[in-house]
Structure formats: C-alpha cells, structure tokens
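Workshop exercise sheet. Pairs work together: one partner reads the sequence aloud, the other fills in the structure field after running the prediction. Swap roles for the next sheet.
Pair: D.N. / O.F.
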Amino acid sequence: MVAANDYHDEEALGKAYDARLMKRLLKYARPYRVGLGVATILLIGGSALQLLLPVMVQIGIDKYLMTKEIGGLGEITLVYGGILAASFILSYVQLYITMLIGQKVQYDIRMEIFGHLQKLHMQFFDKNPVGRLVTRVTNDVNVLNEMFSSGLVAIFGDIITLVGIVIALLYYNWQLALLTFAVLPLLIIATAVFRRKARQAYRDVRTRLARLNAFIQEHITGISIIQLFTREKAALDEFSSINADLRSAHFRSVYYHAAFFPVVEIISAISLGILLYYGSGQIILTALTFGELVAFIQLVQRFYYPIRDLAEKYNILQASMASSERIFNLLDTAPEMIQEELPHKSKMFSGSIKFENVWFAYNK
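Structure field:
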C-alpha cells in the first residue's frame, strides 16, 4: 500500500501565480488565441454595457420622474431593455467561446499526458500508484479546464470592470467615492483571511482526494488478495476513515466560502449606509440629484461583484498552478529506456541466452 508521505506532491500548492508555469500553460492556448481575443473583447463590451444601466436609471429619475414627464419613461425603458438584451447576447457568446476553448485545451493536454505515459519505463509505474496517475489525467486536467474556460478571461474582465466602476464613481461625486473606499481596508482584511483559510482547505481536499483515488484503485485491483486473507472489514474501515477525512475537508472549504460572502455583504451594507446618510444631506443642499445618488448606489453594489468573483478566481488560479506543476512534473519525467523506431536486428545470434549479474531487491 502507499504510505502517507508518498502524497507530499499533492500537498504542495506553491504560489497563486507562477510566471514559469503560466508561460507553459499559455502554450496550449496559443492555437486558440483568436478565440480568446474575441472572448476578451466581448467581455469588455458586456462590462461597458453593464455600466450604462445606472446612467439610464439616473436619466429616467432626474429627467422624467422628478420633472413628471412620464412620456419619456417609455423610451428610457426600451433603451434599458436593449442594453440588457445586448449584454446577455455578448455574455452568452463570450461564455460559449471560453467554454469551447477550455474543452479543446483539456483534450490536448490529456492526449499529451496519455501519450507520454505510454513511453515511460516500467519502474516508474512501480513507484507511482495508478490512482495518482489517473488523478493527473482526470482531476488535474479538469482544474486546468476551469482556468481556461472561466479563469483567465474572467479575471481580466473583473479588473476592467473594477477600473471602470472606480472611474465612474469618481466622475459622479469624488466625495462619495472616497466614502465608499473608506471601507476597503475591512474588505482587504476579510479577503486576506479568506484566502489563507481557503488555501489550507484546498490543500487538505487535494491530499485526501489523492489518497482516496489511490486506495480505491489499489484495493479493487488487489481484491482477490483482500478476500483471500478475509480483510474486507479492515479495508472497509480504512476506506471509511479516508472518506470521512475527505468529507470533513470539503465541509471546511464550504464553511469558509459561506462565511466570506456574507462578510462582503455586510461591508457592502455599511458602505451603502454611509452613502445614504451623506448623500441625502447632499441632496438637501442641492449638491447632488436623487437620480445621481441612486445611480451611485447601483455602481457601488456592482463594485463588490467583481471583488467577490476575484476571490473565487484566486482559488481557481491557485488550484491551476498546483495542478499544472504536478502535470508538468509528470511530462518532464524522461523515460529511462527509449524504444528505437527502427531497431537493429543482429545477424550474429547463437541461439542461447546468458544471464550475468542479474539480481532482485525490494525498494526501501
């Protein structure tokens, strides 16, 4: 059976971003760079359209509701609906392209890994459990698919959206914008704590999942030995323990996610409360219109969406770096014996075989 210390490579997460690994990963996306470029443009366009929605709300309130010109509300409603429809179409096409590229990249990586495994020497398979190798070809590649389909482009889009919202907030009212940014230290602290806890939880999940995969593979392969020595009860108890550890690790991961997002909502609510208090005073002093305050509040609410999304994408990026490092370690393993494509056939062969210095030993 595989000892617990054989899973040290499952536990090493490394950095959330490694330029060396990312450079190698992007090699697989290079054949699909046109599609990635189109998806990025669509994402930027969709983000820009989303920022227009608060502007439409402001116009509808200040120009039509406050002046009681109800006739113009129909036009604003149509424009608002058109922006929503265009944003939906851009988001749908962008998501379809990135998911398609993710599946193609996943296919390419799996083919390369399996082709490389067929070239490796037999001693490699003696030292590496089949369950671990199956994890490389399946789970680790699935993690990379998530990065290519909903990670890289989405991270870029979230950053662009944040920059756009910050510019819009400062344009509307820089005093209100500074009040909004006053709660950012709380958000930074919450994000840092969540990142550290989620990192450890993900490490635990990966380690226990690898143990479970290796245990299942080895015990199903050796089921005849288990039955011969009547070890079914002992094997079931050991499997129950490993399975319970995996469940507990998943529970901890769910707990950290369940705690982080309500904290972000509370910080957002505090920010909105400050805005309402200060903004209402600005309206009384006619330094701010009611429509501008409503539009500002909507922008602030949108400001927290990409922050929450970036926290999720951090986990995806970190998982991708860990999975890619394990995959590349496997791909970088050179076979000790290379089969020649055109082997030489010896003309001098006496018909006898002599064994010299042949020995056998167990690995320590």
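Discussion prompt: The first helix runs from residue 8 to 11. What would you look at next?
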